[in-house]
Specification:
Layout lengths: L1 E6 L3 H12 L4 E5 L14 E3 H7 L8 E11 L6 E11 L1 H14 L3 E4 L1 E9 L2 E9 L4 E4 L1 E6 L26 E11 L10 E5 L10 E5 L6 E9 L6 H8 L6 E12 L8 E2 L2 E3 L15 H21 L4 H4 L1 H24 L4 H9 L5 H10 L4 H14 L2 H22 L9 H19 L10
Parallel strand pairs: 1-2, 1-10, 2-6, 4-12, 10-17
Antiparallel strand pairs: 3-5, 4-5, 7-8, 8-9, 11-14, 11-15, 12-13, 13-14, 16-17
Helix pairs in contact: 1-3, 1-5, 2-5, 5-7, 7-11, 10-11, 11-12
Length: 455
């Protein structure tokens, strides 16, 4: 019998396990990969250092590949760019994962590597056990007081819960981007102008509904993380687009390659229900606009695990005494994330001509983009300055669209910040209001959300 069973050893699962074990709880960590492969995930590898600061985590230099001065956003023509300030790092994904794993194991976490979750037993409104199967071996029945789903964008645990549990919400296909990326040792390095930045390229031809990126992995600019994402439900294969548009541009030895699914939407209606919690991609704790999830996942894991530890010390966790996790996550990141989901849907409708026009005419600058990213809102300063430029340059329809986007970002912010239920009883009616608001907005801007995902 464990205090907690954690399913999935990505950053969210590893950090949750580490926090709980550090407080003396008996934790089982279930992972389908072999131990030596833990941390090996297709990812952009970039993270803002403020996330580490928020949770008080100091990581060793040997798991960092490179440091960034900020982000560059390039127009489709690549003739214009916006520089967004902010210190960031590129982590060695395997090294970071193995470092977190070692710390967790040193504190007593029991690892079930090469195990897949194959069943969930629910009794009297609680998960009583999970069944895990070892690759090429037998099935084990793991029992715990609480269970954490950190198993990724295709959640192994959440999808087996009763459909009427709010934590089991099914997303739309367009709530995801399909991504493919390679880490390449280049024949010739990137320019000195770009080597200190995480570079994002807006191009709807290369990456429809997403973007493509080039993140240097060393100070010489000779190793880069290059990839792209396309909107889910489009029928497009990101690997094919990579081969067509990027492979010749970034010639060299491929160090690592792979694809994956990235949730780019607002968070789950609730991260906790009964004796189950969810973090990371499984809970959609990812920035909807740029798809970065390492930092917000660590923050969510820290919130969930810290609160859970306090509850476990006093008794058995349930929906009521775990509810504060939602309130703390919304305050830390979730409100902004939900608001940015509105912006994401609008951006996915823009064309290359739109992006080039916006960046060429400096409708927004780096500080404005930074403010949007930090606050999750289109401030009056941005809209008023855009209004002035548009009046001079024409294109009044864009101003009307931006006002609609700002209006709905504000509505969503109010709904998540001020009207989120303070107890579980109101969650279903609140979630219905959220769904109605997003459906109304999608119709207004002509965004097709597509069907819900069939797990």
């Amino acid at each position: 019998m464990y205090d907690v069973v954690v399913v999935g050893s990505g950053v969210g699962g590893l950090y949750s396990s580490l926090v709980l074990a550090s407080k003396g709880f008996k934790v089982a960590l279930v992972e389908s990969k072999p131990r030596g492969k833990i941390g090996d995930k297709t990812c952009g590898d970039a993270i803002g250092v403020h996330h580490f600061e928020h949770i008080g985590l100091q990581i060793p230099d040997n798991v960092l590949d490179h440091r960034y001065r900020g982000v560059k956003i390039k127009s489709p023509s690549e003739e214009h760019e916006i520089i967004v300030p902010g210190e960031g790092v590129s982590v060695n994904r395997v090294g970071f994962g193995q470092w977190l794993l070692k710390n967790a194991l040193d504190r007593g976490v029991e690892l079930y590597d090469e195990h897949f979750l194959v069943g969930v037993e629910v009794r009297e409104g609680r998960v009583s056990s999970v069944k895990v199967k070892k690759t090429g071996g037998g099935v084990a029945d793991l029992r715990a007081r609480f269970y954490i789903d950190a198993s990724g964008a295709r959640p192994a645990l959440r999808t087996r819960l009763p459909e009427d549990w709010p934590i089991a919400e099914r997303p739309y296909e367009t709530d995801f981007n399909l991504a493919y990326r390679e880490v390449v040792e280049l024949e010739s390095g990137v320019s000195e102008a770009d080597v200190h930045y995480a570079v994002i390229y807006l191009n709807t031809r290369v990456a429809p509904g997403g973007y493509w990126w080039m993140f240097p992995k060393n100070r010489e600019g000779t190793v880069v993380n290059v990839g792209l994402g396309v909107i889910g439900g489009s029928g497009l294969n990101p690997r094919h687009n990579y081969d067509r548009y990027l492979r010749e541009r970034f010639k060299g030895r491929v160090v690592h390659a792979g694809g994956g699914i990235v949730p780019t939407r607002r968070p789950l209606p609730t991260m906790v229900w009964s004796n189950v919690g969810s973090v990371g991609d499984a809970a959609y704790t990812v920035n909807p606009v740029h798809g970065g999830g390492i930092g917000s996942t660590m923050e969510a894991a820290n919130i969930l695990a810290t609160h859970l530890a306090n509850v476990l010390e006093q008794g058995e966790p349930d929906t009521g005494n775990m509810w504060e996790v939602n309130l703390k996550y919304l305050e830390a990141y979730g409100v902004k994330q939900a608001s940015l989901d509105v912006l994401r849907m609008y951006l996915q409708r823009l064309s290359n001509d739109d992006f080039d026009w916006i960046i060429r005419n400096r409708l927004v600058d780096g500080s404005a983009v930074y403010d949007i990213g930090v606050k999750g809102s289109l401030g009056d300063r941005v809209v008023s300055s855009v209004s002035t430029v548009i009046k001079l340059l024409g294109r009044p329809s864009l101003l009307g669209e931006l006002r609609i986007v700002r209006n709905y970002m504000n509505k969503v912010t109010t709904l998540y910040r001020d009207e989120y239920p303070r107890s579980p009883e109101g969650i279903r009616s609140w979630a219905s209001r959220v769904e109605e608001l997003f459906e109304e907005y999608a119709r207004l801007i002509g965004f097709d959300r597509g069907p819900r995902v069939k797990w």
